[in-house]
Design goal:
The strands form 2 sheets. The chain has an 8-stranded mixed sheet with strand order 3-2-1-4-5-6-7-10, sandwiched between helices. A two-stranded antiparallel ribbon has the order 8-9. It has 19 helices and 10 strands. With about 475 residues, the protein is of the alpha/beta class. Helix 12 runs antiparallel to helix 18. It binds 6-phosphogluconic acid. The site of 6-phosphogluconic acid has 13 residues, from helix 8 and helix 11. Pfam families: 6PGD, NAD_binding_2. Keywords: Gluconate utilization, NADP, Oxidoreductase, Pentose shunt. Catalyzes the oxidative decarboxylation of 6-phosphogluconate to ribulose 5-phosphate and CO(2), with concomitant reduction of NADP to NADPH. Its EC number is 1.1.1.44.
Amino acid sequence: AQAEIGLIGLGVMGANLALNIAEKGHRVAVFNRTPDKTRHFFETAGDLAERIVPCETIEAFVAAIRPPRPVIIMIKAGDPVDQQMAALMPHLSAGDIMIDAGNANFRDTRARFQRLEGSGLTFIGMGVSGGEEGARHGPSIMVGGTPESYARVEKVLTSIAARFDDEPCCAWLGSDGAGHFVKTIHNGIEYADMQMIAEIYGILRDGLGKSATEIGDIFVDWNKGRLNSYLIEITGTVLAAADPLTGKPMVDVILDKAGQKGTGKWSVIEAQEMGVPATAIEAAVAARSLSALKAERERAEALFGVETAAFPTAFGPELLKDLELALFAAKIGAYAQGFAVMAEASREYGWSLPMPVIAKIWRAGCIIRSQFLDEITTAFTAAPDSANLILTPAFSAMVRETLPSLRRIVSAAAASGLPVPALASALAWFEAYKRARGTANLIQAQRDFFGAHGFERVDGIDRPHGPWGSGAAQQ
Ligand code: 6PG
């Protein structure tokens, strides 16, 4: 029998995805640029090998798949994808589908999709989240492409995806780059979640003198409550781990310089491009960039010293509750911002992104999976037209409840000289967003003064310039 699907690229993610596909009962043809890797993969696949068709040439690979052929490409994002597509295309026939499962920039995905229009071939941009474990046992899958091409792969994809309440965490989200866009925003939110957790860790470590193990216990505890999520869970786990070399807590011997591969930055660029404020995500990306300036930070500390004022609140159950709720409030802010970016992109690119479905397929499998996403699913299902998550009845109530904690924690951190950029940015967003009369009236007056840019009046009277007098721009 021919393979149901093909997969190119047997790196860890590709290999795990192929094993997952085989395990769910589908025959899968596999190909890797270096045939050795293909052979090794096949030989180590155990029982699953009976459903794996190892191919050493692209011709054999294509011939092994049942038409119309879906081919998953799981290789390094960027140029390698274009090269792989170019090598594959001459062997494909009308109806075949190339599926890019990497962390592609959705603009590249759109371009690839459009390039194939009219060629008979189609393209799917597929966001896959969940890291190596997810790929092997159930990722969250975000699909962009034509509904027809999705129909050809739906059975395989939904069978390999993670499940929540027995529903697969896989969905078709819209045309061309929709899937990769949603994956990008997933990663932006992932950055914010991680940064905000790290800031709370910083308060506990530097403001309250807690050890890694003590902080780990706190996260383990929080994971039993409303913060329950994969990222909180692994935070508890990594804080408990000891370095085999020194016996010290592992996190204490890890250099404080964070890497980033681009998806966080892309979400901020796209948010800015469309004029959507995504302050918590922006702060998280900037914090990683700042973390990379290790040598400069060392020089600055030598110059300024560490100005530590005692943390204004004593450690105890009350402060712990405040920290937990502050993190929860800030998390709401980050998700509200991420969903707002997707809502705007949906309008901009004509995707009709289904917000409740996105929240649904993020409930399991992906890195940001959590109980919280089930609450978002419910809130968006009840109020699908809400302009922002925090305007839904469920989330406005949660904001009312938790915002005071965020205020207290951010001000306490500021008073003791501790950096909490993402928490503070989320707070600033809340405060500005829920204020009907802001301060941009002054910005408008200034713009009109120096550039005669004009303004709108609150009373609607049509007199769009000020009486600025000497030095002001000519109207
Ligand atoms: C996932 C992850 C995964 C990876 C990102 C971010 O959803 O499985 O998001 O795709 O973590 O590429 O990586 P960086 O932190 O290196 O930018």
